[in-house]
Each structure stands twice: as structure tokens, then as C-alpha cells.
Amino acid sequence: MSAVLEQIKEMLMKGKANDVKTLVQQALNEKIGAADILNKGLLGGMGIIGERFKKNEVYVPEVLIAARAMKAGMEILKPALAAAKVEPRGVVVIGTVKGDLHDIGKNLVGMMLEGAGFKVIDVGINVEPTKFVEAAREHNATLIGASALLTTTMTNMKEVVEALKKSDLAGKVKLMIGGAPVTQAFCDEIGADGYAPDAASAADLAKVLAK
Ligand code: B1M
Questions:
Q1: Quick check: 146 and 177 in contact, CB under 8 A?
Q2: Residue closest by Cα to atom 72 of ligand 1
Q3: DSSP string of 63-84?
Q4: Would the CB of 59 count as within 6 Å of ligand 1?
Q5: For residue range 127-157, what is the model confidence (pLDDT) as tens digits?
Q6: In the CATH hierarchy, which top-level class contains the domain 3-83?
Q7: CA of 123 to the centre of ligand 1 (A)
Q8: Each residue of 135-165: b (16+ CB within 10 Å) or e?
Q9: What does DSSP assign to residue 207?
Q10: Contacts from 57-60 at CB under 8 Å and sequence distance 24+?
Q11: Each residue of 53-75: pLDDT tens digit?
Q12: Which of 71, 111, 114, 184 could form an SS bridge with 67, CB 3.0 to 4.6 Å?
């Protein structure tokens, strides 16, 4: 792999946003393809951070600064990606369920999804079940991601399952869930399509569900 792509990966993992911007521009000047800069440089670095996060080798702050560096690099790369017609892996509508105001984990999941090549539509916190479905329809989403941090609000995930089942998107859009009190057993019980325990696993799961 070219030296500049290796450097993008390294600087992204260190969270050096300005260096990542400069290096992405340098890579474009060197006529490296936008897809390679994205996949081998930016997503390559974010993928390694995700793996380290899963193994508890890095923590939330490191992931946040790597994601910020990824965003900085994307600002420079976006026009070139559009010109090269590089499509996102899919669209994910993500939000925190009705009654729940916690958004730190949800935001982290959104960042890891972007880091995995998805376009993310964040519908925020305290989201009504039907709003998830409406946003999925509006943005032609592949997946819905619902987060809950309270034992009293995780039950509202069942309503998202029902709203999706009743809609014209049933069978077309998949639903993944997560958040501290959520488990695989709960996911099976309410009939969601998948559960992930952390942000990096959520990105891996999304890749599988989006296939
Ligand atoms: Co709240 N809170 N809180 N809180 N809060 C908890 C969750 C709690 C465990 C604290 C405690 O009592 N020990 C407790 C819940 C108890 C329970 O239900 N069993 C609690 C409570 C009770 C409350 C209030 C009711 C308190 C009150 O007012 N009496 C209230 C509820 C408000 C509401 O939502 N309606 C409340 C309010 C708040 C603040 C507003 C003050 C603030 C939220 C700020 C914000 O989010 N912007 C807050 C916070 C910060 C916490 C704690 C301290 C931290 C949560 C957090 O951000 N963790 C939390 C205690 C704790 O966890 N130590 C607590 C870090 C984050 C990165 O982790 O969100 O788990 P997490 O996300 C992980 C995974 O879960 C997963 O990936 C993430 C990254 O790896 N994940 C997904 C998350 N979403 C996913 C979605 C996926 C896949 C994976 O797919 C779509």
C-alpha cells in the first residue's frame, strides 16, 4: 500500500484531524483513487480502532477523536467520492427510543457506522416508533438502529418492531438494537433482526444485515 495511505491510517488512529486532512489532500494530488483513500486509508484506520475498542485496548475518548479525524478527512474526500460515484454501503437511520434521552452510545454507534462506510441519518433522542419508519422510508434506508439505556424504555423497542412490521418496509428494512440493558435474549424475544453489545460490533452487524 502507498506510503501516504499508511500515514492516513496511522494519523486517523492517533486522532490527528489536521494531519489526516493534509494527507488526504496529498493522496488526491498524487492521483490515488478516492475509493482507495476511503477504503485503505480512512476506513482501514477506523476498522482497526473498532477492533481495539472491542478488545478494550482503547476506550470511548480514543474512538471519538479517531471519528473526528475520519470526519475531517471525509470533508476533503467527499467531492472526489461523488465525482468517482463511490456509493455508501447503505443508509442507516439511527435514534434513541421513545422516553429515552441518552445519546452518547448512540452517537458512538453512528460514528462507527460512518467509519464502516454507511450513510447515517440520526433522528435523535426520544424517537417515536413511527418516526424511525418514516425516516427509513424518506431516506431509502437499508437498516434502522434503535438504542435504549433504560430498562423502562428498552420495552419501547418492541413498538419499533411492530411499526416496521405493519409498514410497507416490512421485510425490506432490518432493525438492529443495542444499549446497556439490551441483550441477545431480549432481541430474540421482541423479534428484532440483530443485537450488538458495542459500537464496533454494531458496525460489523450492520455489514452483515445490509447484505
Ligand atoms: Co442516565 N442512567 N439517566 N443519564 N446514565 C444510566 C443509564 C443508569 C444505568 C445510571 C445508574 O443508575 N447507574 C440508569 C439506568 C438504570 C436502568 O434503567 N436500569 C440511568 C437513569 C436511571 C437515568 C435517569 C432516569 C435519572 C433520573 O433522572 N432520575 C434519567 C433518564 C432520562 C431519560 O432518558 N428519560 C437519566 C439521565 C441521564 C443524563 C441526561 C444525565 C445523562 C445522559 C446524557 C446523554 O446521553 N447525552 C445520563 C448518563 C450519562 C448516564 C450514564 C452515567 C452513562 C451512559 C453513557 O453514556 N455511557 C449511565 C450509567 C452508566 O452507564 N455508567 C446512566 C457511555 C456509552 C458509550 O455507553 O450508552 O451503553 P452506552 O453505549 C454503548 C453500548 O451500550 C452500545 O454501544 C455503545 C458504545 O460501545 N450501544 C449500542 C448503545 N446503543 C446501541 C445501539 C446499537 C448497538 C449498540 O444498535 C443500534
A1: yes
A2: 105
A3: HHHHHHHHHHHHHHHHHHHHHT
A4: no
A5: 999 999 999 999 999 999 999 999 999 999 9
A6: mainly alpha
A7: 18
A8: bbeeeebbbbbbbbbbeebbebbbbbbebbe
A9: H
A10: 60/104, 60/108
A11: 989 999 999 999 999 999 899 99
A12: 111
Contact call for residues 25 and 7 (beta carbons, < 8 A): no
**Which residues of the chain does CATH 3.40.50.280 include?**
91-209
The identity of residue 82, as a single letter, is A
In this structure, which residue's CA is closest to atom 39 in ligand 1? Answer: 102
**pTM for this entry:** 0.89
CB 13 within 8 A of CB 48: yes
What 3-state class would DSSP assign to 158? helix
DSSP string, 9-65: HHHHHTT-HHHHHHHHHHHHHTT--HHHIIIIIIHHHHHHHHHHHHTTSS-HHHHHH
Q: Say yes or no: CB of residue 147 within 6 Å of ligand 1.
A: yes
Is CATH 3.40.50.280 the classification given to domain 91-209?
Answer: yes
| Index of the ligand 1 atom closest to the CA of residue 151 | 18
Q: Provide the 8-state DSSP code for 167.
A: S
